[in-house]
Amino acid sequence: MEYLKRAESHEQTFSEEVEKTVKEIISNIKANGDAAVKEYEERFSQSVRPLRVSEEEIEKSISELPENVKVLIDRVVERISAFAEAQLNCILPLEKDFGSGIHMGHRIIPVEKVGAYIPGGRFPLLSSGPMVVAPAKVAGAKQIIACSPANYKGGIHPAVLYGLKRSGATDIFAIGGAQAIAAMAYGTESVPEVDVIGGPGNRFVAEAKRQVFGKVGIDLIAGPSEVLVFADETAEPKKCAADLLAQAEHDPYARAIMVSTSRTMAEETIQEVDRFLKEFSSNSPAHDSWANMGEVIVAETLEEGLDICNDYAIEHLHVHVKDSRSLMDRLHNYGSLFLNSDSSVVFSDKVSGTNHTLPTDRAARYTGGLWVGNYVKVVTHQEITGAGIELLASHAAEQSEIEGLEGHHLSAALRLAENNVTSKTGN
After folding, report:
1. What's the half-sphere exposure (Cβ side, CA atoms, 13 Å) at 264?
2. Pfam families from the entry (predicted)?
């Protein structure tokens, strides 16, 4: 393995300073509710508007949105919802006998109140709202609270508002940052308290989600965008370069990485990246991202390349390798996988239907991305009768006596007595 280009730095999502700031924000909002939220909105966003976005404001804002943009968002909502529905249909309820008189199972129950955080970002990303909200709607959430920064003419961008309404958001608030997460987690006079919070955000949002976890559920903690392009000698340098830059432009700390089994192809891709970047606007985050975070690695063999991919556990793994599907079973650490050179990550970012809220910072070692399953609970139940009581109560009584748990033994032994059964311990 050889680095042709190595990252100069690596963004740390969490720091003591960020942790302390977020802790203070959460504590203040817990104690002072709306007043604290408004304080932070004015300080961080220069926003002095009402927290709740009224139906009148939503309608007026959406009326200014061009019809072609609405058509695009409608398609996004439709496709994300369709994929979420297909996923939900895979999570089946269970009812089964596990021996005579032992009936057990589980139910699929939607989370009642969902909090959706939608970043403001540098651009109004049309898919961000639907990605977080549509799966919650499909899951069956009764109330979906959406928060997004008021960074467009004193409010939320019309395209974001339209996407939130079309996806099923029931309440929308012009609140950003850690204060939005705290408000949804603990509730204020205006913002309802939720059960689970989903959605990406900056390091303050990520840290806030980390700190409120336990009080509420969260989907995952997602940092700046990541992509790893895995390529062999058959790959096209222009496509590889374009795919790297598509994610690099999200954030100065986005990570665009290439792993190639061909030195020639890797070197040509670097040249193409440099050529493309000359055409990018001077303020594009892609410049800093590629300069400071970009990496290019040459693997000696295909096997080594696969090992590198699995070790990076990257958010987006795009395989530009001949017969890429044949490698699928050997790749297991990624947020989302893109097979063949034309399966652009951009399709998933925008409209294909899979979710673009995905694990970063090697979290793909233990989790996937946001999906409809984040908004449902799989809860078990059991009904024990007849012979099942004899079997389980006898076992439980004996085990409880060994463990010295008097209450457990009592509860099991009462069932034995009622069914005229003597446990093996003679009690």
Report:
1. 5
2. Histidinol_dh (PF00815)
Q: In terms of domains, do 150 and 276 share one?
A: no
167 and 37, same domain (yes or no) = yes
Domain count, the chain: 3
Element (H, E) at 18: helix 16-32
User: How many other C-beta atoms can be found within 10 angstroms of the C-beta atom of residue 173?
Assistant: 26
- Give the DSSP H or E segment for 259: strand 255-260
Catalytic positions: 315-316
pLDDT in tens, 225-263: 999 999 999 999 999 999 999 999 999 999 999 999 999
Strand order in the sheet with 376-384: 94-97, 102-110, 376-384
| Average pLDDT, integer, range 184-190 | 98
pLDDT digits (tens, 9 = 90+) for 60-85: 999 999 999 999 999 999 999 999 99
Nearest-10 Cα torsion for 61, 67, 72, 74:
70
- The pLDDT mean for the chain works out to 94
| Residue from 218, 172, 211, 170 nearest 195 by CA | 218
User: In terms of residue numbers, what domain contains 394?
Assistant: 386-418
